[in-house]
Amino acid sequence: MTVAILNAHDEHCTKGALTGIFGWLLQFILASLAFTCLIAKRYCEPRFERRPWRIWFYDTSKQGLGSLFMHMSNIFISGRFQGDPCTWYIINFLLDSSVGLLIIYIGIRLTQFIAKEKKWSAINFGEYGMPPSTHAWMMQCCLYILLMFVVKVIITLLIQFKFWTKVREFILYPFPNQDVELAVVMLIIPLVVNAMMFWVTDDFLMHRSADKSNRLLQKTKIHYRHVMLPRNESDSDVALTTDEEILEESIRHNQSSVLS
Fold first, then answer.
1. From CA 154, how far away is CA 131, in angstroms rounded?
2. Mean per-residue pLDDT for 31-56?
3. Where are the domains of the chain?
């Protein structure tokens, strides 16, 4: 009886379900919402750090191409395993979003280290030169997709272990309807996970200045301080202090602290 139930459940998501009309519709909705998340992230950046649209496109397009490669790879791999392709797809996806994210981070940091050591600025993620170079962007896109390929090879080797068959038997068992199962696998879970993953990966890929004093000036665009006035005037007033004055005052304070 148990075997019959499991076999019946295996038929919930058929081989062609991921690439059917409903499957492609869910994938289009997912891609649109994920892309919207990256646009929202740009507007959440402080105004003085917000990337120009061209630089933002260069950064996020790498994620878009990499995600497309991973998504199509997962669909292809899921159709090659025996059983419900939806369960194999979600297992691949969750591993990509956890183990894969760690590999991506290590790969990006290693690439940036090599780029600085060898002075290969074209492969330094987030650096495009001035003016921004299309050649550097293409080099980084190719390198990022190569990194995605390495991730996919490692994940494919990991899912060869036999215990994933047991995981597959119950991971989506509560969803008896194929369309519901597709919506959970192709939209609901990926939307939540992709929103977090895209946000984090975008931080990996974007350029960050190492000049601390410039960052200090940027974060202190406008400052206010209370100045005590004579009694015949108001008790206090607010005066603007320029960024340079605040920085100089901070330096003098540090120097006096060292001397004392």
1. 37
2. 84
3. 17-196
